[in-house]
Amino acid sequence: MRILTGLQPSGKLHLGNYFSAIKKMLEYQANNELFLFVANLHSLTTIKDPNLQRSNTYDAVLDLLALGIDPNRSVFWVQSEVPEVTEVTWYLSMVITTSQLSLAHSFKDKTAKGFTPSAGLYNYPILMAADILSFQSDKVPVGKDQKQHLEFARDMAIRFNTEFGEVFKIPEPDIDENTAIIPGVDGAKMSKSYGNTINFFDSEKELKKSIMSIVSDSAGVDEAKDPDTSVIYSIYSLFLDKTQQEELKERFRTPGLRYGDVKKELLDKVLEHFSTFRTKREELASKPDLVHEVLESGKTKAKAAIAPTLEKLRSKLGLIL
Ligand code: ADP
Ligand code: TRP
User: Fold this and answer.
1) Among 36, 40, 58, 320, which has the minimal tally of Cβ within 10 Å of its Cβ?
2) How many angstroms separate the CA atoms of 311 and 219, rounded?
3) Nearest atom, ligand 2, residue 127 CA
4) Nearest residue by C-alpha to atom 18 in ligand 1
5) Rounded to the nearest 5°, which phi and psi values hold at 306?
6) CATH architecture of 2-179+288-316
7) Angle subtended by helix axes 259-285 and 288-316, to nearest 10
8) What is the number of the ligand closest to the CA of 16?
9) pTM metric for this prediction
10) Residue 121: CB within 6 Å of ligand 2?
């Protein structure tokens, strides 16, 4: 089965991304054909500084490779290096109306946050559909916020196939409605836009600062504490198996526990869990030639995968003389 997903390079990766999205990609990689790209054409809609664009994209590449995306097993590339998707975007823009696009939540959300209401931002769902459909993906794992984009993509595929003849596979969304929302240090959903993240590739000093700032209630050392309402517990438990989770719950319920001590343990857990990834990341950062080779090979594979669909599209649309 072909699984495809894109990740916008819009900031540092955090525990929320890792325990929901990235772990899932790694699981898929083990048993399926994974197509994964860094969606830098999408991030053009919100990032205007070219230096930031470049460094974010490169960081995302290093992060994903360090975390275990294996370019020999998966097809891994940077979106802008396969500009064929922009050609497909144009073709797909013939089978979606402006009134449909005007219903996109993402456009409303982003413009409400102050981003320029550019045509690029408005057409974002068409580019995303092109990403998905060009590679004949079977399944697309995304977060809940991307649900409508997936519906648009399916719609465009069905409409195109009906109007011009079968070209596209109809992709299935893979949205885990039950994925727990991982809280940030302030207890709200961990998110870059809230500034409440724990970024696992930060330095030890920065990590310590984030972890020490996790909110807790005012229960004294000699009082029992409730793990079920504790943000520290929610985050710590991500690193534990079922038995260890029960043990930690018991420690919370037993008077004597100091939040400060638990936070120090959590810091150790984070450092331990990501230590090999961190080393790998440093290694990759010191070998830019290797990283570029990996991207070159990903680009070649992605171009080969998109070519037959492009041929079909041009032919169905009457563009081949
Ligand atoms: P952010 O909210 O930090 O901008 P993104 O929207 O880039 O994060 O999310 C990338 C992926 O990580 C998505 O699949 C999203 O569902 C997942 N994700 C992000 N934050 C959390 C969280 N706090 N809990 C669970 N999953 C999350
Ligand atoms: N829009 C997605 C997000 O913000 C990223 C993305 C771009 C994507 N193209 C995609 C996800 C194709 C899945 C498939 O998270």
Assistant:
1) 320
2) 66
3) 9
4) 17
5) -85, -25
6) 3-Layer(aba) Sandwich (3.40)
7) 80
8) 1
9) 0.94
10) no
